[in-house]
Specification:
- The protein has two domains: 190 residues, Rossmann fold, CATH 3.40.50; 176 residues, Rossmann fold, CATH 3.40.50.460.
- The strands form two sheets. Strands 3-2-1-4-5-10-11 form a seven-stranded mixed β-sheet, sandwiched between helices.
- The chain is elongated.
- Helix 1 runs antiparallel to helix 2 and helix 8 packs across helix 11.
- It is of the alpha/beta class.
Length: 413
């Protein structure tokens, strides 16, 4: 029987998944392996009848540039009882599988590690190599290397975001835009800066003070007043959905938000329009200040996840697909593959990245001390500074309350 590999995709979609699947398949097919695609993520491995597909050269080439995932995805995460009672060891034995390739985020990577250890205990050791995927760009790859899908999602989001900004200018309105990003503000910052937004708010900015609804609203009001002083009666504020993770439960409840939680304990942010919540609260604040402005909400989320990958991600994912075979041929296992900016393939062992207590991989956050970030804050964004206090008193009695550096308790540059 031929040696075989199995490929599965877990979590949510990201542009470039099919390029990885296609590249891995072509690389191993060329070397005589059977390549089995597993639908349903990990759910298939804990089922008596997993839904599979044999990948060939025709499929690999056909799916390469497509958005979405040819292999249906799942957020299924097995518990200890699933391993003992439901694990389909026969799937690996009967198909002579030597390598499990997983494509996903930190939860998918952690589960892959558990499966490899479990199979070793059952005296059927296999290799497992993980391909890191997330539009949030929050996996800790070295040298600023992005997670695949991020660049494509940022590009798609920026197209919509620039259109929103043009609407704001054309109609003389203010918009509140919220972008995906559970644990880090990379996507919100990337889209907001690419669209030249006058206010961008991400959780990393609150490194010296706690995040609160009041501070978020004051930052947006600061931008609105500053642009009025500049003679500009329109604008857009970008907020990362990740700020919701840091808000106190009482504040979230006071805002009328009630989250449900997924099987991993994450709040299901997708079921609530964060843009609507902030826009509504901002309208109340603006009315209390007598500024005569009503805002409009725009949510940037699902439309970014399954778009056709941009050229960067297609080439990057092709390199990652080849990198899987390179690491496997070198005997590597239990690791994530990455391709650095110079095109070299590297790997990171999951055991070195995971928190020893929780087993989670700590997220990579936006470096707010980088020159790129400081340039956007200091030169591109609009907000009240001490030089604006006198002019700002036309709109508010206490302009210092709307000074970005005072709100965030940052030292002045």
């Amino acid at each position: 029987m031929k040696d075989a590999i199995a490929i599965l995709t877990g979590g949510g979609p990201a542009p470039g998944i099919n390029a990885v699947i296609g590249s891995v398949a072509k690389t191993f097919l060329e070397r005589g392996y059977r390549v089995i695609g597993l639908h349903g993520g990990y759910k298939g491995l804990f089922s008596t009848a997993p839904r599979t597909v044999d990948l060939d050269f025709f499929i690999a080439e056909d799916i390469f540039t497509r958005g979405g995932s040819y292999l249906q995805m799942s957020r299924y995460k097995p518990c200890a009882a699933d391993f003992e009672n439901n694990f389909n060891l026969g799937f690996f034995v009967d198909n002579n599988i030597k390598l499990l390739v997983t494509i996903g985020g930190d939860d998918t990577a952690s589960t892959a590690n558990r499966i490899a250890k479990f199979l070793e205990e059952k005296h059927y050791p296999i290799a497992n190599i993980h391909v890191p995927k997330t539009i949030d760009n929050d996996l800790p790859l070295p040298g600023g290397t992005p997670t695949f899908g991020y660049e494509s999602a940022k590009d798609k989001g920026a197209v919509t975001a620039r259109t929103v900004f043009e609407d704001a200018r054309t109609s003389g309105n203010w918009f509140v835009t919220v972008a995906m990003g559970r644990s880090a503000g990379h996507l919100a910052f990337g889209i907001g800066s690419a669209s030249n937004y006058p206010m961008i708010i991400i959780p990393e900015m609150f490194d010296r003070t706690a995040i609160s609804v009041d501070k978020i609203l004051r930052l947006i009001v600061s931008s609105i007043i500053k642009r009025r002083i500049m003679g500009m009666n329109y604008g857009v504020a970008m907020v990362s959905e990740g700020v919701f993770h840091e808000l106190e439960a009482a504040e979230i409840a006071a805002a009328g938000v009630c989250f449900s939680y997924d099987e991993h304990g994450h709040p299901e942010l997708c079921k609530v329009s964060k843009a609507l919540v902030f826009s509504t609260m901002l309208d109340d604040r603006l009315a209390a200040l007598g500024l005569g402005i009503k805002t409009r909400p725009v949510e940037l989320g699902y439309e970014m996840r399954c778009q056709i990958p941009v050229a960067y991600d297609l080439a990057y994912c092709q390199a990652l697909g080849g990198g899987v075979y390179k690491l496997y041929s070198e005997g590597k296992t239990g690791c994530m593959v990455y391709a650095d900016q110079a095109g070299s393939i590297g790997h990171l062992y999951l055991r070195d990245l995971q928190d020893p207590q929780t087993g989670k991989i700590p997220p990579r956050t936006v470096d707010i001390h980088s020159d790129q970030f400081r340039n956007v804050v200091e030169n591109m964004m609009s907000y009240i500074t001490p030089a604006d206090y006198d002019a700002a008193k036309t709109y508010v009695q206490d302009p210092e309350k709307y000074d970005l550096y005072d709100i965030l308790e940052w030292p002045r540059p």
